[in-house]
Amino acid sequence: MTRTDIKQTENKTKSDRFSVPCVKCNGATKHQVLASIDVDGEAYDQSEEWSVNWVDHYQVIQCGGCESISFRHTSWFSEDADPMSGESGETERLYPKRGLETLPTKPYYNVPSNLRRIYSELIDCFNNDSPTLCAAGLRAIVEGICAERGVLDGPVEQTLKDGSKKIVRKDDLRGRISGLQEKGLLTQTSSDTLHEHRYLGNDAVHQLARPSTDELRLAIEIVEHTLEQLYELPEKAEELKRAKALRQKKQSKAHP
User: At what angle do helices 131-148 and 213-227 cross, to 10 degrees?
Assistant: First the structure.
């Protein structure tokens, strides 16, 4: 007859220290366990003379550098351990997910809340290996930028049947990206780059294509640059202007 014994202990691994990638710091840092639930399990059959064992540690951890708090789950299963092949049977999962290949969510303080939400979601999709959804999110955030800036259309070069070209106004995403450049909200280079990103989104959404990690990483960098250029830099420039005016005012009072 098979029996299962499970023992749950509170804070058995509390105060343990180890090095793991930090959710905020650039690289691995020392972390400490603030609280834990630790589980030891065994299933066995005395008549058949077999048993399997497992261990789970559910830990709230804190970085010793930036003091950010996250979650760690480590586990060990006897049937996954194989000394001959070097398999220890141990696994480690960190939440939020992070590592050398994950991207941080940049803090944008002046970007509209709906665009910040889409940006945060697409970074989550990238980090959790959901490339098609990530590409769709990239397309959505570009459309959101156009809508927020009131750009409904823009000039697009169209090739006619006789091979000649003419400029027409289009209200699709291609036209609206050109409209951003037309209004001086994007440079020509940024506009051209976003046009390339537009195709990535079209392929992903309409043809269910799976974009590569490198394509997505580059597209995300383009979007981050666009958010910085449209929303963050103007506000920083205004802050510098206000600080300069205040400094000049103080100087004029000090030296009438």
Answer: 20
Where do the structural domains in the chain lie, given as residue ranges? 3-95, 113-243
Main-chain dihedrals φ then ψ at residue 27, nearest 5 degrees: 120, -175
Residue 230 C-beta-side C-alpha neighbours within 13 Å: 24
CATH architecture classification, 113-243: Up-down Bundle (1.20)
Q: What is the pTM of this model?
A: 0.65
> Looking at residues 163-186, what average pLDDT do you find?
88
What's the length of the chain?
256
Lookup: tokens for 119: 């940006």
The maximal CA–CA distance of the chain, rounded, in angstroms, is 99
Inter-CA distances, 223 with 15, 92, 115, 135, 195, Å: 41, 32, 11, 11, 12
35-70 pLDDT, tens digit per residue, is 999 999 998 877 767 888 899 999 999 999 999 999
Residues 6+ apart with CB under 8 A from 39: 6, 7, 8, 9, 54, 55, 56, 57, 58
CB of 60 closer than 8 Å to CB of 35: yes
The single-letter code of the amino acid at 251 is: Q
Nearest one of 102, 26, 23 to 60, comparing CA atoms: 23
Taking only the tens place, the pLDDT of each residue in 183-230 is 988 888 888 877 777 666 666 666 767 788 888 888 899 889 889 988
Distance CA 81, CA 91 (A): 11
The predicted model gives 71-89 an average pLDDT of: 82
Token pair recorded at residue 114: 């709906």
Comparing C-alpha atoms, which of 196, 178, 198 is closest to residue 187?
Answer: 178
